[in-house]
Structure formats: C-alpha cells, structure tokens
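Page 37, continued from 36.
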C-alpha cells in the first residue's frame, strides 16, 4: 500500500487474508466489526450451552457491583447502551426475577439471591476461560495498546462531529 499525500496510507478494500505489511490500509470498521461479531458470538454460544445470556450476566454483575441495591430503572439506564434494543435489559430483569436469581425488596430495589450469586460466580469462571482463549498470544501491553488506539479513534470521530 502506497502512502498518499501527507503520509496518510490509502484505504484498501477489506481483506481477511492481507499480510501484516498491508494492514495499515485496512478499514478499521471491517476489523473492529469482525472482532466484535466473532468474540460476541463465541461468548454468547458458550453461555447458551448453559442456558444463560450475555445480558443476564451483565445484569447479575451490575446488581452485584452497585454500591446500594439498584432499581430496575438504574440497571436499565446503565446497561441499555450495551444491549441490542431499548427494552432488552428490562426483559432480562424479569427473566432473572422469574429464575429466582434476583429478588425485589419492599422498596423495589434489586438484590441477588443465593442462586443468583452462584450463577454469577459460575459465569465469571466461564467468562475468564473464554477471555483466555480470546487473549491467547496477546500480552496485556498489546491489549492495552489496541484499546487505546480504538478509544482514540472513537474520540477523533466524536470530536469531528461529521463532515
């Protein structure tokens, strides 16, 4: 790939078989999208085998990590940006209440039940195993560098605000 004026590398079509020396011309949208799709599918497939969803894990973790017992609305506000749709988290809370992994107190605040905490811990073990697969051959330094690059790209686009 030849640099165009100003030292910027020309954009090439997405090519999963491209050699390392050609990566600078590859579109970030393709590679970040492929990484998201592949990793998310891997995680969700593994969770489906034990009849759990990724959003259920998010909710269990959110309720566990909240400094005081959160409301449904607080959990939904925090997690909806990660979800596939605006109503997904509310549905997940209902699923977890039905499973008796969550309970509501008299103030309508959410708490993990013993079964919910046991499920959260099992899922944390699974996610730790899956993370090891995803991170195989990648040092913490390389991982941090990749995330810094992605974070900078997001900030660049947000700052630009369009053409």
């Amino acid at each position: 790939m030849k640099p165009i004026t100003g030292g910027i590398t020309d954009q090439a079509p997405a090519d999963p078989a491209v050699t390392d020396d050609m990566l600078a011309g590859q579109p970030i949208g393709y590679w970040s999208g492929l990484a998201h799709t592949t990793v998310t599918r891997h995680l969700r497939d593994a969770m489906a085998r034990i009849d759990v969803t990724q959003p259920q894990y998010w909710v269990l973790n959110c309720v566990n990590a909240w400094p005081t017992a959160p409301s449904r609305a607080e959990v939904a506000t925090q997690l909806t940006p990660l979800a596939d749709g605006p109503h997904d988290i509310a549905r997940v809370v209902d699923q977890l209440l039905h499973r008796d992994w969550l309970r509501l107190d008299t103030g309508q605040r959410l708490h993990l039940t013993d079964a919910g905490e046991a499920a959260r811990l099992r899922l944390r073990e699974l996610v730790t195993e899956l993370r090891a697969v995803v991170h195989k051959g990648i040092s913490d330094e390389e991982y941090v560098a990749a995330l810094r690059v992605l974070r900078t790209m997001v900030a660049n686009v947000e700052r630009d605000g369009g053409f």
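The beta strands are 102-104, 110-112. Flag for discussion at group meeting. Residues 28-48 form the longest helix (21 residues).
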